[in-house]
Design a protein that fits this description.
It is built from one helix and three strands, in the order ββαβ. It is α+β, with helices and mostly antiparallel strands and 60 residues long. A three-stranded antiparallel β-sheet has the order 2-1-3, with helices on one face.
Amino acid sequence: MTKSYRWEIIPMEEIDPLYVFTATDSALSAAQAFEEQYGNHISVYAIRKDAEITKFEEAI
């Protein structure tokens, strides 16, 4: 079983929210993933955990 987290990033500008995925339940990790993916030219208003995703592996 593995878990990942989807985070909603709400920019200061009036544009649609952006999403990042992390392996840890940490807003700091989400902020770092956001900067890696989108750069530092977008000001962030809020970060919100949107989903906790659990993946189960089948045993054969």
